[in-house]
């Protein structure tokens, strides 16, 4: 039987196994090689919710999905084409994600009686042996056994040998997709620099997997996925978390301020703390506080002292920070709050994604407490979005909430990274020192901390600057002087002033663009945040089918871009897909009087392109209440 | 370029102090009307702080007062320095962020028994264990004043207050023992009615490198008048209070006729008048002795049956040096720069692996 070579435009592979099977590493190595081959791609890892869920059980399954192609790839893929399962639990947990006719590569050692029991398969017969998988193309390989045989002369212990089996899978897939082994070999040599034995064993098994594909006849096809036509330039692969870290360091660099990051560990935001704590040589201060409140408070303290103060969390932690964010609103100090959203309410589903904290960001504090909100739309876009959050905070002396989510944070894509010289400057001016302050030198010259410029922004007057001694606080303050005031007219004036200050930001952000489609069309799909990839792909495909549907994706959620209202009023139908129960849709209705209709999914998972297309078709023409 | 020099670029050049006092206490009073109840102990604390500031030799613009919520928390408004009246209980956390990023500043936390021992108790103990180089003035009046008279975490058991009409059944905190337990490096107590002693203690707080925890017994004339009368009243003070001095024997009484002696680890009050004991037999105060400092902090509760009441100690119970968190953070940054070189943003943006699309 000869092996056929087929060309594919796009492929989705899902690696699934026990937490200890090294599926995340396998996935990311395949990703690196794929990126180096010039494909466009998106990835999404999924980890078990428990740290050490029992081996072999369904809760212990860890998986990594990679979608790559020669065309534009914007989502990690709806259904996968290839599913690698290292044990029975991995099959059970992931089979529903495999497209019909898809390929299953199953490690048969993972389907013995013990594993079937652990995975709670009710039948005695392995799913590999009954005909439950008849709709798929199942390739059974005893990966564990082959790995052991291949390393029979190795001096490594039993466990270390067993741990090499993921390299067999990787080698086999490299053969299937005509990929070179070199970058993985280089990686392994570097990673196990001081453990030659382990490096050699892994490389041996990797090659074994590749040769297995070549010599056995179980596979009838190999596949080629050609280079994508990405914009020319130098690329790297980046996760949303790493892009956020880089964006923060860059914003500090471009504003010439020290970065102070106060945080408390919480899924899925902790990785930002981990990432920034490695950047001490950039002068980054990271402070793991005793709780969420201390984390935000420390950032406010640092901002008072003239640093770029940043705090991070996820929904429940943001709730705890609410009072302190309100303080920053009153102090009119720059503060950046990163909310890496997860499924709520309460503890909810920490490892699952959701966009349900928009209302919390908008209104989730006591009193009238306006802040700015910025949301990234893809892993790489986290860089620019968090940079913008910092810019707005610093230039407008206001707290800014950055609304990312777990899906963006953990996902990755190729990024045409910028050079420092191309980054914009962030304009920061501290109030200069005065020499003759004080009543003895005439009241007129008294420093007034709450005097504003044309944008209604007050000065940043940091301790250590002579003549600027002044007091700020959470109590309502008199206009200009900042002195405590209970005057009714002053309070109303200040409440409106803080809101006007936030609204003025609209003059300093880009106008809303149409991502795809036309102005004044029939239907527009309006999204924000991580739904970008699914919406863009769905709209692209629907337009190819001849539908008049456009896509607008909003990064600046508070204040909205000043042309947004006019733009949206140009369409007959406004549909708003969100991973929540309808939040942006309510804002568009209440703030802009747009007759918008929601498309909502609240399953802790992103929209699939196909389901979204279907929902859009259903939504068009249906009456809007 | 270090962070400090980065910030100091924006600061004016500072003259070096010549040892003379540059300011008078008036220079530290702001233009705001002071609004505590007439007769409140807070007034005298404010006055002593304003008197002490010129003596510590720090430029006005380098001093920051940060408070939480409560009667005492109005304090920063009355000081003509930088100041922040923040939110309930969080002043230690705000101060930590400020001091870590601005080690050049002299940071003073103004807090009360409700602010620091109830809603902000977590931040209070964390501050002490981290030993951030700030000064914390704990105005203890054993009551909630601003909210008009509920019992506080330092109110004695049985206190009848608005929220405890049948008497409080909460066991109170002993702030100094708590501070010792949190590994505080400077633990001291003073009282509003002894201005001279308070000034000394404020200066000592400033001089100490690390978190200085100074508890100040403060009379709330409206809701808890006379809570500390035994210690503040001239008639009872000699027998009820003992002033500590490093290296000196523990003496008290009107004519220093009484002393405290240690029998093993058991303190006892002895008379120096009946010839049984002399000064040499007494416990000599050692600010560096943690065990003894803890024993002193325990001169607090009512005595067990058959034991004598100990006088309440005032002064510095404990003062030792331990690395400060803020300094360690800066050291770590310096070490990282030394080891890896000043970070190059382009290297970071590029990451470990790149590829070219033509
Ligand atoms: S209520 Fe008590 S503590 Fe508060 S200002 Fe009045 S006297 Fe002072």
UniProtKB/TrEMBL annotation, chain A:
Residue ranges constituting the Pyruvate flavodoxin/ferredoxin oxidoreductase pyrimidine binding domain according to the UniProt record: 260-459
Entry-linked InterPro entries: 2-oxoacid/accept_OxRdtase_asu (IPR022367), PFOR_II (IPR033412), Pyruvate:ferred/Flavod_OxRd (IPR050722), Pyrv/ketoisovalerate_OxRed_cat (IPR019752), Pyrv_Fd/Flavodoxin_OxRdtase_N (IPR002880), Pyrv_flavodox_OxRed_cen (IPR002869), THDP-binding (IPR029061), Transketo_C/PFOR_II (IPR009014)
Domain Pyruvate/ketoisovalerate oxidoreductase catalytic: 20-210
Oxidoreductase recorded as keyword: yes
Pfam families assigned to the protein according to its UniProt record, in alphabetical order: PFOR_II, POR, POR_N
Pyruvate:ferredoxin oxidoreductase core domain location: 522-609
GO biological process, alphabetically ordered: response to oxidative stress
GO molecular function: oxidoreductase activity, acting on the aldehyde or oxo group of donors
Keywords on record: Oxidoreductase
Keyword match Cytoplasm: no
PANTHER family: 2-OXOGLUTARATE OXIDOREDUCTASE SUBUNIT KORA (PTHR32154:SF20), PYRUVATE-FLAVODOXIN OXIDOREDUCTASE-RELATED (PTHR32154)
Name of the protein described by the UniProt record: 2-oxoglutarate ferredoxin oxidoreductase subunit alpha
Automatic annotation (TrEMBL), chain B:
InterPro entries the record matches: 2-oxoacid:Fd_oxidoreductase (IPR051457), THDP-binding (IPR029061), TPP_enzyme_TPP-bd (IPR011766)
Domain Thiamine pyrophosphate enzyme TPP-binding: 72-216
Record-linked Gene3D superfamilies: 3.40.50.970
SUPFAM superfamilies given in the database record: Thiamin diphosphate-binding fold (THDP-binding) (SSF52518)
Keywords: Oxidoreductase
Protein biosynthesis in keyword set: no
Domain of life: Bacteria
Biological processes per GO annotation: cellular respiration; small molecule metabolic process
Record carries keyword Iron: no
Region Disordered: start-end pairs: 1-29
GO molecular function: oxidoreductase activity, acting on the aldehyde or oxo group of donors, iron-sulfur protein as acceptor; thiamine pyrophosphate binding
Entry-linked PANTHER family: 2-OXOGLUTARATE OXIDOREDUCTASE SUBUNIT KORB, 2-OXOGLUTARATE OXIDOREDUCTASE SUBUNIT KORB-RELATED
Protein name (Swiss-Prot/TrEMBL): 2-oxoglutarate ferredoxin oxidoreductase subunit beta
């Amino acid at each position: 039987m000869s092996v056929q070579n087929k060309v594919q435009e796009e492929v989705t592979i899902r690696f699934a196994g026990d937490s200890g099977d090294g599926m995340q590493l396998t996935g990311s190595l395949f990703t690196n090689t794929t990126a180096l081959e010039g494909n466009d791609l998106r990835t999404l890892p999924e980890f078990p919710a428990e740290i050490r869920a029992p081996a072999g059980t369904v809760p212990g399954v860890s998986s990594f999905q990679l979608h790559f192609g020669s065309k534009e790839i914007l989502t990690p893929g709806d259904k996968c084409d290839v599913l690698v399962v290292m044990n029975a639990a991995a099959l059970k947990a992931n089979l529903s994600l495999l497209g019909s006719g898809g390929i299953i590569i199953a490690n048969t050692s993972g389907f013995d009686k013990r594993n079937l029991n652990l995975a709670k398969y009710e039948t005695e017969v392995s799913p590999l042996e009954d005909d439950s998988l008849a709709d798929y193309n199942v390739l059974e390989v005893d990966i564990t056994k082959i790995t052991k045989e291949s390393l029979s002369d190795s001096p490594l212990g039993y466990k270390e040998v067993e741990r090499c089996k993921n390299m067999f899978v990787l080698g086999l897939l490299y053969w299937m997709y005509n990929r070179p082994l070199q970058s993985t070999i280089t990686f392994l040599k570097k990673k196990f620099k001081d453990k030659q034995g382990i490096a050699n064993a892994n490389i041996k098994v990797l090659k074994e997997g590749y040769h297995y594909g070549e010599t056995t006849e179980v596979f009838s096809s190999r596949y080629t996925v050609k280079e994508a036509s990405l914009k020319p330039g130098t690329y790297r692969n980046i996760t949303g978390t790493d892009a956020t870290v880089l964006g923060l360091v860059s914003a500090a660099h471009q504003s010439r301020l020290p970065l102070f990051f106060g945080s408390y560990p919480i899924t899925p935001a902790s990785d930002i703390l981990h990432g920034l704590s490695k950047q001490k040589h950039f002068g980054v201060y990271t402070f793991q506080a005793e709780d969420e409140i201390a984390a935000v408070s420390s950032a406010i303290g640092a901002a008072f002292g003239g640093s770029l103060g940043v705090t991070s969390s996820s929904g429940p932690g943001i709730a705890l920070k609410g009072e302190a964010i309100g303080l920053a609103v009153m102090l009119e100090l720059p503060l950046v709050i990163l909310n890496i959203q997860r499924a709520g309410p309460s503890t909810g589903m920490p490892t699952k994604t959701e966009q349900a904290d928009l209302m919390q960001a908008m209104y989730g504090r006591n009193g009238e407490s306006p802040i700015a909100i910025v949301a990234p739309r893809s892993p790489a876009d986290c860089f620019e979005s968090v940079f913008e959050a910092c810019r707005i905070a610093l230039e407008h002396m206001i707290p800014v909430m950055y609304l990312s989510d777990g899906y963006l944070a953990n996902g990755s894509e190729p990024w045409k990274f910028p050079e420092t010289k191309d980054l914009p400057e962030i304009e920061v001016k501290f109030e200069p020192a005065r020499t003759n302050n004080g009543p003895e030198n005439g009241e007129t010259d008294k420093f007034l901390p709450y005097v504003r410029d044309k944008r209604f922004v007050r000065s940043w007057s940091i301790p250590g600057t002579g003549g600027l001694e002044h007091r700020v606080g959470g109590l309502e303050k008199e206009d200009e002087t900042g002195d405590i005031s209970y005057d009714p007219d002053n309070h109303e004036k200040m409440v409106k002033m803080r809101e006007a200050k936030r609204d003025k930001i609209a003059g300093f952000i880009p106008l809303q663009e149409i991502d795809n489609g036309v102005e004044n069309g029939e239907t527009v799909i309006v999204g924000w945040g991580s739904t970008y990839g699914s919406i863009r792909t769905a709209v692209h495909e629907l337009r190819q089918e001849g539908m008049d549907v456009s896509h607008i994706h909003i990064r600046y959620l508070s204040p909205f871009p000043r042309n947004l209202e006019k733009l949206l009023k140009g369409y007959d139908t406004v549909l708003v897909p969100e991973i929540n129960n309808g939040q942006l849709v309510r804002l568009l209705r209440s703030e802009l009087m747009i007759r918008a209709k929601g498309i909502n999914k609240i399953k802790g998972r992103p929209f699939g392109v196909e389901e979204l297309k279907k929902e859009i078709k259903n939504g068009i023409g249906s009456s809007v209440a | 370029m270090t962070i400090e020099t980065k910030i100091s670029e924006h600061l004016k050049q500072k003259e070096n102090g010549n040892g003379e006092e540059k300011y008078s206490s008036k220079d530290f009073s702001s233009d705001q009307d002071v609004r505590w109840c007439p007769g409140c102990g807070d007034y005298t604390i404010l006055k002593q702080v304003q008197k002490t500031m010129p003596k510590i030799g720090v430029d006005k613009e380098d001093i920051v007062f940060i408070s939480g919520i409560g009667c005492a928390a109005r304090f920063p408004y009355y000081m003509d320095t930088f100041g922040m009246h923040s939110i309930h209980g969080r002043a230690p956390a705000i101060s930590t962020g400020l001091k870590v990023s601005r080690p050049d500043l002299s940071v003073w936390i103004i807090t009360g028994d409700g602010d620091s021992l109830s809603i902000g108790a977590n931040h209070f103990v964390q501050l002490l264990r981290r030993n951030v180089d700030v000064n914390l003035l704990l105005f203890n009046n054993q009551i909630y004043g601003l909210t008009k008279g509920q019992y506080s975490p330092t109110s004695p058991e049985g206190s009848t207050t608005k929220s405890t009409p049948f008497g409080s059944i909460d066991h109170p905190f002993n702030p100094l023992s708590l501070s010792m337990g949190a590994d505080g490096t400077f633990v001291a107590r003073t009282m509003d009615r002894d201005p001279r002693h308070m000034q000394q203690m404020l200066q000592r707080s400033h001089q100490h490198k690390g978190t200085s925890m100074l508890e100040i017994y403060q009379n709330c004339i409206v809701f808890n008048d006379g809570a500390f009368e035994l210690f503040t009243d001239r008639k009872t003070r000699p027998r009820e209070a003992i002033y500590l001095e490093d290296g000196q024997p523990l003496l008290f009484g009107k004519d220093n006729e009484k002393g405290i002696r240690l029998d093993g680890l058991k303190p006892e009050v002895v008379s120096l008048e009946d010839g049984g004991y002399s000064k040499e037999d007494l416990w000599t105060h050692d600010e560096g002795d943690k065990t003894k400092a803890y024993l002193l902090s325990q001169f607090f509760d009512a005595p067990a049956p058959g034991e004598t009441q100990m006088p309440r100690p005032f002064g510095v119970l404990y003062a030792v040096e331990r690395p400060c968190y803020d300094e360690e953070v800066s050291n770590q940054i310096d070490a990282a720069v030394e080891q890896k070189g000043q970070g190059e943003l382009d290297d970071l943006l590029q990451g470990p692996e790149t590829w070219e699309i033509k």
